[in-house]
Amino acid sequence: MPGGDTSPTRQRILTEAMRLFGEQGYSATTIAEIEAAAGLSPGAGSLYRHFPSKRALLGAGVDRQIATGSDLVALIGDQAAFAVLPLPERLAVIARAGLRRLDQERDLNRLLVRDLARFPDLLERMGDGEIRRVYRVVTQWLATQAGPQAPQRDWEALAAVLIAAVSNYWLLRDVFGEHPTGIDEQRYVAALVELAAGLFDAGADTEKEEDMSTGTTGAGAGTTGERTTGERTTGTGARARPVLPRQAHGSVLAVTALAGASALAAGVWALAAPRSFASFVAFPYSQHFLHDVGAFQVGIGATLLLALAWRDALALALAGFLVGNTVHAVVHAVDLDIGGSGWEVWSLAAWSLVVGVALVLRLGQLGGVVGEVTTATTPVLAPFVRQKTVLLTSYRRDGTPVGAPVSIAVDGDRAFIRSPEKGGKVKRMRSNPVVEVAPSTARGKPAGPAIRARARRLSGAEFEHASRLLARKYPFLQGLLVPLVHRVLHSKTGGTVHFELTPLDGLDTLRDRAAP
Q1: Contact 112, 126 (CB under 8 A)
Q2: DSSP three-state, residue 430
Q3: Is the pLDDT of residue 410 over 90?
Q4: Which part of the chain is CATH 2.30.110.10?
Q5: Percent of the chain having pLDDT more than 70?
Q6: What is d(CA 385, CA 366) in angstroms, rounded to the nearest whole number?
Q7: pLDDT at position 144, please?
């Protein structure tokens, strides 16, 4: 950057200037407006301490946007990260990353259409540093995915077609607020992937013969076939995880819940009223034996019910054992008057203590997150995948930062948060969508470097998607408690709103902030 000035004030001026340029146009935006938006005294000339002119400010904004584009290029070029994914999922990751990149460039994209033709040098810089670079990388990536037996295709032209499809969807959504057809991003990406995967069909007849001999149904490269056992395979030869239909998944959950509740009820019955339980099951009465049965049933029931929400097998096993063994220890202590010895009680209690410590350590390894998490496809979001709480900093109109601890869920190259509609941060993000996000304690004390992101309020299918991600990561907090509180306090706090957070920083920025 010119003069090596990387101060927060300079960055804030740059961010607000690019936003105003994008919203109003370069010519219509005054220096005083930029200073006011950045929290400086309007008309005082403070901006010139950081930039010699408005033209220089625009050039710095273009350069910063080009520099942050290296993350998308690095993602596309990371063959090792993509190797574990079937081709359709690889294509979907690239398409979504492209949309997120366009979100990051929203202000510059608007400028590109409206004003950059007046500045040929900046337009050429943008073409070389950003646009043509992305086209080259996508062309190379497509050719690499094709494999040696794929038919010869004009990958350069096809890259242009696919990039244009992503760009057109983003442009229409930006102009109208949502795509004019009402098609949400998830549907659009799925349709684009279906079309793009057909480009990689190769040797279909030969592979069909091989598939028939191995019990699979037709699968060209990049398409999905099914074995007679119902196991999915991908055109890359990798076996994909079987996917249950939604109805079947719901049935599994219902059976698990019923079995867990039944086991827990039976256990409590055997513990609280052993004679009644023995009479019901027509079994000879033995108080301690029935108490032991009750302890084991409680442990089994607790494990099954926790399995509805907990996704880590080791934490689930430790928690189930801890519940069952602790109840077992209590039973032995209560029944000492009819038999047994004190060392058995202390032995069982010691096991509960050891397992309890192991469970605490495991939960610490998981960041306290026992629910379902997805993966980050951009490095700057990786620290937030298992982060339980983050400090979200939004800005008032005068530039004053205001922080609030929130829950976060990451999905690929974006993250999601929720808030009551009448919350202060919702108003601040409506006025200025640029925020900072940092790992934090439950009380909002920063615990790691922050990243800059752009917040976008969600609706429709995107709203529901964000809600599901948060509920799966935080089954009790965001799946039950927060929605309940929002409903109870609806008249005071308003309904629930969800925001998508798209990173504006690159990995290098994150490393710089983490450095001592």
Answers
A1: yes
A2: helix
A3: yes
A4: 379-514
A5: 82
A6: 10
A7: 79
| Residue 33 CA neighbour count, 13 Å, CB half | 15
Tell me which CATH code domain 379-514 carries. Answer: 2.30.110.10
- Measure the CA–CA gap between 488 and 484, rounded to whole angstroms: 6
What token pair was written down for 114?
Answer: 């409206």
Every domain of the chain with CATH number 1.10.357.10 lies at 2-197
DSSP for 208-248, please give it.
HHHHHHHTB----TTSEEEBTTS-EEETTSPBPPP---HHH
Instruction: Quote the percentage of the chain above a pLDDT of 90.
Output: 23
Neighbours of 291 (CB within 10 A): 23
Give pLDDT, residue 273: 92
Vertex 413 angle, CA 450 and 167, to 5°? 120
- Among the CATH numbers 1.10.357.10, 1.10.3720.10, 1.10.10.60, 2.40.128.20, which is that of 2-197? 1.10.357.10
Beta-bridge partner residues of 12: none
> Is 336 in contact with 306 (CB distance < 8 Å)?
no
Check whether 203 has a pLDDT greater than 50: no
User: If we measure between CA atoms, which residue out of 131, 162, 25 comes closest to residue 69?
Assistant: 131
Which pLDDT score is estimated for 149? 62
Give which of 75, 233, 251, 91 is closest to 159, Cα–Cα: 91
Mean pLDDT of the 411-415 span: 87
Above 70 in pLDDT, residue 45? yes
In this predicted structure, what is the pLDDT of residue 70? 62
Measure the CA–CA gap between 410 and 384, rounded to whole angstroms.
7
Token couple for 255: 């059976």
Across the range 399-424, mean pLDDT stands at: 91
List, in sequence order, the alpha helices (H) in 391-503: 424-431, 460-473, 482-488, 490-493
Contact at 8 Å (CB) between 217 and 204? no
The 10s digit of each residue's pLDDT in 287-345 is 888 898 999 999 999 999 999 888 888 999 999 999 999 999 998 898 888 876 778 88
Distance CA 474, CA 454 (A): 23
Q: How far apart, in whole angstroms, are the C-alpha atoms of residue 314 and residue 279?
A: 37
44: Cβ–Cβ under 8 A, 6 or more apart, which residues? 35
CA 373-378-381 angle, 5° bins: 55
Question: And the tokens for 100?
Answer: 């997120």
Strand order across the 390-395 sheet: 401-406, 390-395, 434-439, 451-457, 496-503, 414-420, 409-411
pLDDT score recorded for residue 513: 46
Element at 66 (helix H, strand E) = helix 54-68
* pTM score over 0.90: no
Rounded to whole angstroms, how far apart are CA atoms 260 and 342? 31
